[in-house]
Write a structure and sequence with these properties.
By secondary structure, the chain is α/β, with parallel strands linked by helices. 34% of the residues lie in helices and 22% in strands. Helix 3 runs parallel beside helix 4 (102-112). The longest helix is centred in the first third of the chain and has 13 residues, at 19-31. The two termini are 22 Å apart.
């Protein structure tokens, strides 16, 4: 099993005919993702990479039964693309676009209310269920099917932890990059809820950082339930100076955000087993499962 995407996922790509859309569609198809269509206004009726191109998501869904979308549209139009996918009742929408204006994301968040869509991103590396489906920019060379669920705010640390897990024969059920922006779709809590219901996920790894409230919300959630499976946490940024932006908008420790050490303390109090660094995650997970 997996969460959110699997071998039954039927992917359409918004902005597929652009440079990024072409590259990541080709990568997904090479990995085995079932790509069924592209969407590009004004290009409907054509084909690209051997796939039909439609003017709108609604047309593509009607003709191909697509149930997931990858948004590769540039930032100024990304919000409209996400909203179009949500209104077309696509179940999983992954947006890899960086620098989407936060006031645009307010409109996307409003569109999500009352819908059944799950948004991953923006500014996300996407989602990967090894051997079944890749949507986004995650490298796949080290991915391996298995029983560890990973939810992460950091793309580079995800790659390192994933590779270490695979090298130790700890494969992954699903890896989700929740994105680095302050306003985004699914967060740690949404991932934890789904991994809890997935019988094949035996342990969960959360990769957090300074800034934002994902770790605080995860701690509140885990304190409120009997989670039933081990959760290992890695929170980086303990030595970063307060108030400095560290790579992306979500990594900004100001306006009362807790420090990395304070987040670690909250997670530990909620039952999360804390890894001291990325190289310690495998040993920590192994210890929890033994």
């Amino acid at each position: 099993m997996a969460i959110l995407v699997d071998e039954n996922t039927r992917l359409l790509v918004q902005g597929m005919t652009g440079r990024a859309g072409t590259f990541y569609t080709d990568q997904a198809m090479r990995y085995g993702t079932n790509c069924v269509a592209g969407v590009r206004p004004g290009r409907g009726g054509t084909s690209h990479l051997g796939l039909p191109v439609f003017h709108t998501c609604a047309e593509a869904v009607k003709e191909t039964q697509a149930n997931a979308s990858l948004v590769t549209v540039p930032a100024p139009k990304a919000a409209e693309a996400m909203i179009e996918a949500i209104e077309a009742e696509i179940g999983v929408v992954v947006c890899i676009t960086e620098r989407v204006p936060q006031h645009d994301m307010r409109r996307v968040k409003d569109a999500l209310k009352g819908s059944d869509a799950v948004l991953i991103g923006p500014n996300s590396q996407g989602i990967l269920t090894p051997g079944q489906c890749k949507i986004g920019v995650m490298p796949t060379v080290d991915a391996k099917p298995g029983q560890i669920g990973i939810a992460s705010r950091s793309a580079s640390l995800t790659s390192e932890v994933l590779a270490n897990c695979s090298a130790a024969n700890l494969g992954q059920s699903t890896t989700v990059g929740v994105g680095g922006d302050v306003l985004h779709g699914i967060g740690f809590v949404g991932c934890l809820e789904r991994f809890r219901e997935d019988d094949d996920t035996k342990a969960v790894v959360l990769i957090g950082e300074m800034g934002g409230r994902e770790e605080e919300l995860a701690a509140e959630y885990l304190s409120s339930v009997d989670y039933g499976k081990p959760v290992v946490g890695l929170v980086v940024g303990r030595h970063a100076p307060v108030g400095r932006r560290m790579g992306h908008a979500g990594t900004l420790s100001v306006f009362g955000n807790l420090s990395a050490d304070e987040k670690i303390s909250l997670l530990r109090d909620a039952g999360v087993v804390i890894a001291k660094d990325a190289g310690d995650v495998v040993d920590t997970v192994t210890s929890c499962l033994s």
